[in-house]
Amino acid sequence: QAHRGSVRPFVNFNAKHDAEILHKAMKGFGTDEDVILMLLAARSNDQRQQIKAAYKKAYGKDLVSVLKSELGGLLESLIVALMTPPTSYDASQLHMALKGVGTDDEVLIEILASRTGEQIKEIIKVYKKEFGGKLEKDVCGDTSGDYQKLLVILLQGSREEGVDEGKIEKDAKDLYAAGEGKFGTDEEKFITILGNRSAEHLRAVFDAYRKLSGSDIEDSIKGETTGNLENLLLAVGKTPGTDDDTLMRIMVSRSEADMLDIRASFKKMYGASLYSTIQEDTSGDYQKALLYLCGGND
Question: pTM value?
Answer without folding.
Answer: 0.84
